[in-house]
Design brief:
By secondary structure, the chain is α/β, with parallel strands linked by helices. The chain is built from nine helices and 15 strands.
Length: 336
């Protein structure tokens, strides 16, 4: 992370993503005046550390956004819908991690390694949207394939960690695991079914029988990478705390050249390639949790067609899927 010379607010500073923001921001501030941590009224006055300093949480509802240059929002779509326009009206650029603005045509949806050049064409202040966590890691891996062979269709299955649902989901997995091992009854509060020792659909069902998580991947891929790409997703929640995994089957217009693809993966910014011979890598526990890069492995030519390839992708959903991607957006803005 580069040295920062911006005044920054973190909305949702007490949440799971907020804590990762602060971890990534450590040692980048010269004084407390540069960083403002915002949350609901009930968290006002709470002290949170960032680097060797402590910051007092402020009430979001009364905060004056003219005091900061950039605000990171990670407190859900409802909060973003209410307070992001307020921040913008007070001259503050908003980088929003919720789903609130992703499908709005006039609001950029950005993965810096994929379509970061879009930011060169915009003027501050503005609202910029951060993609869904699964979309972010998927498209970092798909970009080299698309650049070389022109993707026409992608079929994906995601294996999503519970941290994508917030701290309450992490607590629920831990508590249910303990209860199950002790032969005690479990409580399902975050999800409709037990998540410990189980696999369940991720997201909320929509009218077309796909979940909102599945439709986010489809809509966001088209907006960020290429409108012509057809993509179908099945998203599932797994009993993993940190790190999403994705199995992707990719069809292209051109014949896949695996040596060329391997070289492209190796040079793609933000992507770490593992050898196809390294069967156990990448996995979320060893190669995603607490790490910045998106990892790709299990790179296999299709068994039947020469214009298809199968890949396996893992990444820390709270980093590249949220906090890190937002901070990389800010860096791009600062480079203008």
């Amino acid at each position: 992370m580069k040295n920062l010379n911006k005044r920054i607010a973190v909305v949702g500073a007490t949440g799971a993503v907020g804590r990762v923001f602060l971890e990534l921001l450590e040692n980048n501030f010269s004084g407390k005046k540069d960083l403002h941590l915002l949350a609901s009224k009930k968290s006002e006055g709470k002290l949170i550390s960032c680097g060797d300093q402590q910051f007092e949480v402020k009430d979001l509802s009364t905060f004056d956004f003219s005091l900061v240059d950039i605000a990171f929002f990670s407190a859900g779509a409802e909060i973003s819908g209410e307070f992001a326009p307020k921040a913008l009206s007070q001259g503050c650029t908003v980088i929003d991690n919720s789903s609130k603005f992703r499908r709005e045509e006039d609001i950029p949806l950005i993965i810096p390694e994929v379509n970061g050049d879009v930011l060169k064409q915009i003027n501050d202040p503005i609202i910029i949207s951060n993609p869904n966590c699964s979309t972010a890691q998927l498209l970092v891996a798909l970009k080299p394939i698309h650049d070389l062979f022109e993707i026409t269709r992608v079929d994906v299955v995601t294996f999503q960690a519970v941290s994508g649902s917030g701290q309450n989901a992490i607590d629920e997995l831990i508590n249910q695991t303990k209860q199950s091992l002790n032969n005690e009854s479990t409580k399902n509060e975050v999800y409709g079914a037990q998540i410990a020792f189980n696999v369940i659909p991720a997201g909320n069902l929509e009218e077309n029988d796909y979940t909102d998580e599945e439709m986010k991947i489809s809509h966001e891929t088209k907006k960020i990478l290429d409108e012509k790409i057809n993509i179908s997703a099945t998203t599932v929640r797994v009993p993993v705390v940190y790190g999403h995994s994705i199995a992707a089957h990719v069809k292209t217009n051109k014949k896949i050249n695996l040596p060329n693809l391997h070289r492209a993966f190796e040079t793609q910014t933000g992507l770490e390639k593992y050898s196809e011979k390294d069967f156990l890598s990448p996995n979320p526990l060893e190669h995603a949790e607490g790490k910045d890069p998106v990892s790709v492995g299990r790179i296999r030519a299709d068994l039947w067609e020469d214009d298809r390839v199968n890949i396996w992708i893992v990444a820390d959903n709270l980093r590249k899927g949220a906090a890190l991607n937002s901070l990389q957006i800010m860096e791009r803005i600062m480079e203008k």
